[in-house]
Structure prediction request, 497 residues.
Amino acid sequence: MTKPPGNHFFAAAKEDGIMTSLLDKLWTSHLVKDGKDKPDLLYIDRHLIHEVTSNQAFDKLRALNLPLRRPDLTCGVIDHSIPTDDRTRPLKDAVAEAQLSAMERNHGEFGFEVFFGCDHPCQGVIHVTMPEEGLILPGHSVVCGDSHTATHGAVGALAFGIGTSEVAHVLATQTMLQNKPKTMAVRFAGKLKEGVTAKDLILHVINVLGVSGGTGYALEYAGEVMGDLSMAARFTLSNMSIECGARFGLIAPDEVTFAWLKDKPRAPKGKDWDLAVEAWRELATDKGHKFDKELEIDLSEVDARVTWGTNPAQSATLDGKIPAPGRFDTPVDRQAAENSVSYQGLTLGSPVSGIKVDYVFIGSCTNGRYEDLVEAAEVLKGRKVKEGVTVLVVPGSNTIKVKAEENGLDRIFTEAGCQWRHSGCSMCLGMNPDVVPPGNRCVSTSNRNFEGRQGYKSRTHLASPSTAAASAVAGYIVSAPELNRGRKDPAFSPPRA
Prediction:
């Protein structure tokens, strides 16, 4: 474990009368060299790697005859291309087998200490299993060759995605060149309405900002409601921050964070834990700090949402409509919307609820955590999936899978007619056997609805686990409250933590 940030920097900043942000504190505590008018050089506490974007980087180390700089800080997993049903080796997909085999060879040759391979009890989606094992802590700097590395900002870590050439740089040096972004506070006013989830909230934020409204900024989520949000909900917010162009999605660590982390296998123990928490409390943005930009979201205006288009900003409330042609501000926006509905087989101005569904996917690094599975199970308990609808439920890690099975969630899913799978990225990105066939429509709890993201010519609607489950039962897009009207059987109440 790397030493948590000490109090010296934060105390000095306060003595000088400087009010600093969470980003400032994370950045300064990892600054190796100030780049002045060039990118800064940052030290990296955790380098996460998987089988798709790291193998080429290891080849570069071989070509340059370089060792792995910090095997103890390099954490690997198999998740993107691995099947979630039959994992018999060699895999049927030759490309996937080559990726897995290369990752296993790299582990044997370079000796990175943490490797959650195919049969490891902690195998799972990289942005789910790493924090739940306590490998990602407040104050850490975290990189990965994966755009959704921003997920780890939920624990107060400086986390961001990098490219394959940058992966090689970190493998060789344990440092990363990076431009410091501006800061944007996203403040939530009020309380979430009943039935509105973190997925609905982040879809609302992205809808307000647009796909590029966060470009050049690190988002920091704040507001009284943050104390009510579970870590699963916070991970969802941070995970999708990049869908509005931001590089970071930060949340200051608090009592919710500490309670969630305390018993994680690799978290600090005993006196080390007490010292770590003392340091982590200092990470919060100082009162009086002025952000470069602030966005206030009135939670009384946030409802359950689903995407209708081909980017995460194109969403509407479940009881709303796809915007009509006259609702777009510019000809460019209107053309983009027309292109999206053409691909999706929809019409501008038509209702969102009632769109026929062929597939439902519940999982991913956005919504594959235990609480997400409970949310879906509450809707599916005692019900059946609509005939003709295929539903995949894929836990975010094997740890979550085991816990779900201990508490009977798997039986709820299978009795409803869902497929209960092994952990992995699965249908999020179509880089494995779990794909949506051409022309078919999927309600997905993942993070991107780009053209072809879930399979060639597939059509994707992003939604919360409860909306996805409700749509699976109805056979068309519908909210869980709408589906639940008139339901008389008792609510399902499995343990939530």
Observations:
- The longest helix spans residues 94-110.
- Residues 172 and 476 are 50 Å apart (CA to CA).
